[in-house]
Amino acid sequence: MPPIVLDGESLTLAAVEAIADGASCTLQRRALAGVRAARRTVERAARGGDAVYGVNTGFGHLAQVRIPPGQLDALQLNLLRSHAAGVGDPLPERVVRAVLALRANCLARGHSGIRPETLELLLGMLARGVHPVIPERGSVSASGDLAPLAHLALVLVGEGEAWHAGARLPGAKALKRAGLAPVRLAAKEGIALINGTQVMLAIGILALLRAERLAVAADVLGAMTLEGLKGSHRAFDRRIHAARPHTGQAVSAGNLRRLLSGGTIEPSHADCGRVQDAYSLRCMPQVHGAARDALGHVRRMLAVEVNASTDNPMVFAEEDELVSGGNFHGQPVAMALDHLAVGVCALGTISERRIERLLNPDLSDLPAFLTPEPGLHSGFMMAQVTAAALVSENKTYAHPASVDTIPTSAAKEDHVAMGVHAALKAARVVDNVAHVLGIEALAAAQALDFLKPLRAGKGAEAARAALRRRVRRLAEDRVLSQDIVRARELLDAQVLRRAAEKAAGSLS
To answer: Among 89, 219, 238, 474, whose Cα sits 20 to 30 Å from the Cα of 179?
Structure first.
C-alpha cells in the first residue's frame, strides 16, 4: 500500500493498525510548515525573559524553578532520563510502531514546538525498524504517558534501548545500524516528546479493532450454536428489533437472519413443542448489540484522540503564544477503554453460556461433552472449564481503572486517569474473549457435525466447513490447546466471517 500521510488531522484508526503491521508513513509538507512556525515561537520564548513552563522552568512541582539560558537543552535531556522509570515487560512491537506513528502525528499538528529534524528522526526510526523498548508499567496517565514515552524518546538521543533486526540493542547502536544519527534536544523538545496519551491510545486502538472483528465473529458462532442446539429463528424477527431500535441490536439481528437462512435444521424441529429458547440464544441481538454500541462509542472517542494535540504548554504560532493547559490528561481515553473492556466482556460471558449448553446433555439433546463415546472420552469438558476461567478473569478486568486516582508529583498532579491500566486491561479482555469464541467455534462445529445430514443456515454451515478445513472433528480425545489457538487465529484472520459472507451475504 502507498505510504500513509501524517498531517495531524486525518489519521484513521485503520491506518494506525496498518502502520502497526508494517505500513510506511510520511509527513505532509504543509504540516511541516506548521511545525516550523511553532518552533520559531518556542525559540522566541526561550530567548525572552518571561517564565514559560517546560521551556525555562522545571517540571511539575518544580515549575517555580527558573532554568538559566545555558542549561535549557540539558533540562530536556534530564527530563527524559529522570522520567524513564518504567518497569515490566516491553510493549509488543505492533504497539510500539503504533505509538511512534501516533506521537509523530500529534507533533505534526504544530502545537508542540518540536524541531522538524527531531520529528523526521522519529519517522526515520519507524521506517527503518528501530523500535524502542518501552516497559508497559509506570504510567498513571496524568501528564499523559510520561514514563513509557520517555523510554521511547531516549532512543532519539542515542540512549535507552531499541529492537532492530531482531536484536535488542543500546539506543545509539540501534540507530547506527539503521543508518540514523541521534539528535541533541533543544528547548521544549523533551516535554514535547513525552506529554501525550499515545501509549494508552495505541494499545486501545489495536484492542478496539480486534474487538470489532470479534463482535461479528460472535454473531457467526452464535448462529452455529443456535443451529447445533436446534434453536428457533423467530427471536430475530425484524419487527421485534424495530420495536426497540438500538443500532447494535438491529445490526446483530440482521446478521443472524442472514446466517441462519436456507438451512434444513430449523424445519426439522418445527413441531418440537419448545416455546422459547434460553437467553444465551434468544437474546443474542440484545447482548451482542449492546457490546457493539459500546464499541461504537469507543471508536468515536479514539477517532477524536488520534488527531488531537495532547501537549503542554500548547504552542499557538499565529498568536506567537505558549499556553499551559491539560490536554495531556488521559481521562477521555481511559473511560472509553474501560467501556471497551465491559462491552467485550459481555461477548465472552454469553459465549461461555452457549458453550455450556452445547456440552450439557441435559440441555442439548447431544452426546455429553460432544464426544461420540462419553465416559471413555471427555470431549470438550475441560475446554468449557477454560472458557469459564477466562470469563471469570474478565470480570475482574472489567472493573474500571479510570475511577481510581492517586496524587503524584508532590500533589501537583492531584488527579490522574490510569489510562494505560485501562488499555492493558481492555486488551487482555479482548484476548481472553478471542479464546472463548475460539472454543465456541470448535464446540458449535462439533454439534453441527452430529446433526448431519441436516444442514445449518447457509452462513453458519459455510463457517463450519471453513473451520473443518483447518481443524478436524474431535472423534476421540486429544490435546485441545492447539485446536483452541488455531480456532482463535481463524477468528482474528476473519476466515469464518469471509466464508459465511460468501454463502449468505455481507455481515455488518
So the answer is: 89
353 & 467 share domain: yes
The three-class DSSP label of residue 344 is helix
Domain boundary among 168, 196, 224: 196
**What pTM was computed for the model?**
0.96
Long-range pairs for 31-35 at CB < 8 Å and ≥24 separation? 31/6, 31/7, 31/108, 31/109, 31/110, 32/108, 32/116, 34/8, 34/108, 34/109, 34/110, 34/317, 35/107, 35/108, 35/110, 35/112, 35/114, 35/115, 35/116, 35/119
Same domain, 290 and 258: yes
Distance between CA atoms of residues 1 and 24, nearest Å: 8
Distance CA 14, CA 11 (A): 8
Q: Which of 288, 424, 402 is nearest to 336 (CA)?
A: 402
Residue 61's pLDDT band (boundaries 50, 70, 90)?
confident
Are residues 212 and 122 both part of a single domain?
no
Residue range 326-357, pLDDT digits in tens? 999 999 999 999 999 999 999 999 999 999 99
Residue with cell 489510562: 419
In angstroms, the first-to-last Cα distance of the chain is 25
CA distance 388 to 72: 56
Instruction: Report d(CA 41, CA 315) in Å as an integer.
Output: 7
Q: How far is CA 236 from the centre of its chain?
A: 30
Q: Of the residues 4, 53, 298, 504, which is catalytic?
A: 53
CA gap 19, 204 in Å, rounded:
15
CB proximity list for 78: less than 8 A, separation 6 or greater: none
Tally the domains of the chain. 2
**Which of these three, 138, 168, 196, is where a domain ends?**
196
Tell me the three cell numbers of residue 26: 510520511
Mark whether 53 is an active-site residue. Answer: yes
Q: What does the alpha-carbon distance between residue 145 and residue 91 come to, in Å, rounded to a whole number?
A: 13
Q: Which domain holds residue 179?
A: 4-196
H helix runs in 401-457, sequence order: 419-450
